[in-house]
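so im writing up the methods section and need the CDK5RAP1-like protein record in one place, dumping it here so i stop losing it
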Amino acid sequence: DEVLQLIAERPNICKEIHLPAQSGNSAVLERMRRGYTREAYINLVHRIREIIPNIYFSSDFITGFCGETEEEFQDTLSLIELVKYNKTFLFSYSMREVIYLLQKNMC
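--- predicted struct ---
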């Protein structure tokens, strides 16, 4: 909260936060080993907006991660609609050989 208060109070600090979500589905986030859930992410967004109401949010998303289902993908779309990001960066998951060797137990 200290950093958020600083951003809110200082006119010379840009009111922008890039908060990568990667997915809007907790099961996919767990497979990605992100260390947070959809609910925790949403709570963080709400907390940031409480402190900095005019915040500019951007985020990254990966679609098709390790057999992502249509339902899991719809959770990502609903997160995008809920948060109302100012900018999103969308990427399609692709398995590369090096990643495969490092992460084959993730999928």
